[in-house]
Design a protein that fits this description.
By secondary structure, this protein is an alpha+beta fold. It is built from nine helices and eleven strands.
Length: 279
């Protein structure tokens, strides 16, 4: 709906491309073994190649795409895709389902979201004010060095949140989450300063896993059933368990976190997925 006071010249052109950030989608699938058995054995080699070609195709490919073997009965394989164009992302899913093997591929879960910069990520001035509140002397060389270092790191941090590179680490887990709206524990009624403090504590807990785990938090408010999606990549599956357990004790999680289903997977090429699943 147009704002009655908005100037047409000030409005962005209609577009599927976000003003800031990229679209992100998670897809999870399960093989229907009965339907797989109905595929002509003579066609199997071609069907496997056709499946792999969709995920390996470099033409009109999303900017980011990873495929995973999913552990447990929730799914057999999963995809994470990111691109400025949501239809380029969904096209991969549609092409996959239209293959011969796609006839036996059952979607079990999907999550639609967008990358964003957290409102709790301080800019240079907010970071400087935080240092002063912690007792730093704004006239000291140490203070100036810290602010200068943060200012240089900030563009990299913003880029990693809006258009992140996916790490080639072997283990991944994904889960959707909400912030609670319970009586006495309603995140959205908390003052911004209180929420900022809790998120800073949460971030501090995560920093203990630097180099072991990296995360992508995407926003699904207005796009899916949950408010945010969290994707974690780790150098070792144990680190996934360790970081989630550690961060559960933070107020942001302990008091306000509500979590959906967890999907854990292991990075794999399309060919490796088919071999693992005995297709």
């Amino acid at each position: 709906m147009n704002h009655p006071h908005a100037s047409p010249a000030a409005l962005p052109e209609p577009s599927l491309v976000p003003v800031q950030g990229w679209h992100c989608s998670h897809y999870f699938y399960r093989w229907n073994r009965k339907l797989l058995a109905q595929i002509d054995p003579i066609e199997k080699d071609h069907a496997r190649q056709q499946f792999c070609n969709v995920l390996n195709d470099l033409h009109d490919r999303p900017q980011r795409l990873q495929s995973f073997i999913i552990s447990g009965h929730k799914a057999d394989l999963g995809l994470i895709l990111m691109d400025p164009d949501p239809l380029r992302i969904d096209r991969v899913h549609q092409r996959l389902m239209s293959t011969t093997l796609g006839q036996a591929l059952e979607p079990t879960y999907s999550f639609v979201s967008m990358s964003e910069v957290s409102e709790y990520l301080p800019d240079k001035d907010q970071y400087a004010a935080k240092l002063i509140r912690s007792g730093e002397d704004p006239n000291s060389p140490t203070f100036q060095a810290k602010v200068g270092s943060y200012e240089r790191r900030l563009p990299v941090m913003l880029a990693q949140r809006l258009a992140p590179e996916f790490p080639s680490w072997p283990a991944m887990c994904f889960y959707p989450m909400n912030k609670a709206r319970n009586v006495g524990a309603n995140w959205f009624l908390e003052p911004f300063s209180s929420r900022t403090e809790m998120m800073a504590e949460h971030a501090q807990s995560g920093m203990a896993f630097a180099g072991k785990v990296t995360q992508l938090v995407t926003a699904s408010v207005g796009l899916d059933d949950w408010e945010w999606g969290v994707t974690l990549w780790a150098r070792n599956p144990q680190f996934l368990k360790d970081i989630v357990y550690t961060m559960r004790f933070d107020s942001a999680s302990a008091r306000f976190g509500q979590f959906g289903p967890f999907y854990v997977g292991y990075l794999a090429s399309p060919e490796a997925i088919l071999e693992h699943c005995s297709i």
